[in-house]
Design goal:
The complex is a heterodimer. By secondary structure, chain A is an alpha/beta fold. Chain A has 2 domains: 2-154 and 318-335, Rossmann fold (3-Layer(aba) Sandwich), CATH 3.40.50; 171-314, 2-Layer Sandwich (Dihydrodipicolinate Reductase, domain 2), CATH 3.30.360.10. Chain A has helices spanning 13-24, 26-31, 56-65, 80-86, 106-115, 125-141, 159-163, 180-192, 196-205, 214-217, 220-234, 253-261, 318-335, and strands at 2-9, 34-43, 46-49, 74-76, 91-94, 119-122, 146-147, 171-177, 244-245, 264-273, 276-285, 296-303, 308-314. In chain A, the strands form 2 sheets. Chain A has a 7-stranded mixed β-sheet with strand order 4-3-2-1-5-6-7, with helices on both faces. In chain B, strands 1, 2, 3, 4, 5, 6, 7 and 8 form an 8-stranded antiparallel β-sheet that branches. In chain B, strand 2 and strand 3 form a beta hairpin. The longest helix of chain B is centred in the last third of the chain and has 15 residues, at 143-157. Classes of the chains: A alpha/beta, B alpha+beta. Chain A binds chain B through residues 175, 246, 250-252, 254-255, 257-259, 261-264, 266, 269, 271, 273, 280-285, 288, 290, 302, and chain B through 40-43, 90-92, 94-95, 120, 122-124, 128-133, 135, 160-168.
């Protein structure tokens, strides 16, 4: 049995999902020969630390009640960076919210963990969109792993698929739907003819869009993902700010209807072709594999050997993202001697 | 000599006759027509017309006839050799399409050598943004330049350009 001690930094929706999966899949992980113990959980105002292992069901109960500070291992005012340095653990799961302006606090968390010779698994796009090369070099220098499957398209296998199943392939171009919220809005506009504003309101009511939806509808989220894909899969030195970005707020029902009449759907497409990287609304033929509805994501990789490879799946969601995080954790544990 | 033209016909009565008119008007002899309904795109059916011409000169006259007739032609071959290789690009423009002079937009594309084979406008109220869908035929080697020109026009006129995904 291979054992690993895990720390979760950022105990919001995704962090909670990771804890839930660690608990619910415990037996399945043991069947795979892996035993994971949660030794620390960090939040803004403190950390829970128990190097013998934190009981996940009690943790989740306290989280739901908003009473994490009542946990016996609660260390008020312990900063995440200090816990990352000081707590004896193997893998830091960094799942704080994405910030594409500064990358913080995730950037400092990840850099500190790597410098402390701890493996990192993250769903946080900001640090990777801004400092991909630096973080990868830091991981190599410290001889630890930096895994980020959950940063792009949540539960869909992308990086691990390319690293393993497409290992001998060169990625020539990438295009796809990388944001479920905008895909939901555009799909509703296409299906029902409603305005952008009405579809956005509906998305908010269903919990698909945030109250402040700029991050999604202006294409910021998709641009961060395109940056990570270009750097990780195509060896580019692409900066987030160099991704040409057009959002979906100006799309009107008349445009959707004209496209539909001519056999197209309008989708927000992230694309890396040649030396161009962009996120913009594009016309997708109705029978095209990228024409997926609802909150689905779809990614098309053009490779030299396998030609077009298409992955379709749920790009976001608590458990879907946790699935990608746990798969990265398992990869690290299984590769350890 | 055997010539072939790949044309894209709207799935509506009379469009095939219109496409054949330049061939018959300039002395070409049509001997086969194949519709590729499984490759229908943007509401247009790719159709391969095979016809006999005396020489390249006659084919050039027919080619000009297609253009004049407004027939969307993406490929012409003579004895298997490509004479014309074009792409068709569907583009939706969103914004104040009419107020920013749609004719000027089309003229600028035309000056570049792009042929706007259709222009469909949808406008709810004159003071509100409108949308237009164009099919643009362009020689393959001018495709990248066309995209840049569309971006330039869109920036000047504050329009959103929604182009057809590449390789569709």
């Amino acid at each position: 049995m291979k054992e690993a001690r895990v720390m979760i930094v950022g105990f919001g929706v995704v962090g909670e999902g990771v804890a839930e999966v660690l608990d619910s899949k415990k037996k399945q992980l043991e069947k795979l020969g892996v035993k994971l113990s949660l030794v620390a959980v960090c939040e803004k105002d403190g950390c829970i630390v128990d190097e013998k292992g934190i009981g996940v069901s009690e943790l989740l109960k306290l989280k739901k009640a908003g009473e994490l500070q009542k946990h016996s291992g609660w260390k008020k005012k312990m900063r995440s960076v200090d816990a990352i340095r000081e707590v004896d653990c193997d893998i830091v799961v960094e799942v704080t919210p994405t910030n594409v302006e500064s990358g913080e606090p995730g950037l400092t968390h990840i850099a500190t963990a790597l410098d402390s010779k701890k493996h990192v698994v993250t769903s946080n796009k900001g640090p990777l969109a801004l400092k991909f090369s630096e973080l990868v070099e830091k991981a190599e220098k410290n001889n630890v792993e930096l895994k980020y499957e959950a940063t792009v398209c949540g539960g869909m296998p992308v990086f691990n698929m390319v690293e393993n199943a497409l290992a001998s392939n060169e990625i020539k171009s990438i295009k796809g739907i990388l944001n479920g919220t905008t895909n939901f809005i555009l799909s509703r506009m296409h299906e029902t003819g409603v305005t952008f504003e009405v579809a956005l309101k509906e998305a908010k009511e269903m919990g698909i869009a945030e109250e402040k939806p700029d991050y999604d509808v202006k294409g910021i989220d998709a641009a961060a993902k395109i940056t990570i894909l270009a750097n990780a899969l195509m060896g580019r030195k692409l900066a987030y700010k160099d991704v040409k970005r057009v959002g979906i707020e100006e799309i009107i029902p008349e445009g959707i209807a004209l496209a539909k009449k001519s056999g197209f759907a309008i989708k927000l497409i992230g694309e890396i072709t040649g030396d161009k990287a962009s996120v913009s609304p594009q016309l997708i033929p109705l029978g095209h594999p990228l024409n997926v509805g609802g909150t689905l994501n779809a990614l098309m990789l053009e490779t030299d050997l396998a030609k077009e490879v298409i992955v379709i799946g749920r790009g976001a969601g608590k458990i879907e993202t946790a699935s990608a995080i746990i798969s990265d954790v398992l990869e690290i544990v299984k590769s350890r001697k | 000599m055997k010539a072939e033209a790949l044309v894209h016909l709207k799935d509506a009565p009379g469009t095939l006759l219109e496409a054949l008119a330049p061939i018959s008007a300039h002395g070409g002899n049509v001997y086969s027509i194949s519709h590729f309904r499984e490759r229908i795109k943007g509401g247009a059916v790719p159709t391969l017309i095979a016809f006999e011409v005396k020489d390249l000169e006659q084919l050039e006259v027919i080619k000009k006839g297609f253009l004049k007739q407004g027939v969307e032609v993406t490929e012409i071959t003579l004895e298997g050799r490509k004479i014309v290789k074009r792409k068709t690009l569907a583009v939706v423009l969103v914004g104040h399409v009419m107020a920013t002079d749609a004719k000027n937009t089309i003229d600028r594309l035309d000056e570049y050598g792009a042929f706007v084979s259709s222009f469909d406008l949808s406008i709810a109220k004159t003071e509100l943004p409108s949308a237009a869908l164009m099919h643009i035929v362009i020689e393959e080697n001018k495709y990248e330049g066309l995209l840049k020109l569309l971006d330039k026009i869109a920036e000047e006129k504050k329009l959103v350009v929604i182009r057809e995904v590449e390789g569709s």
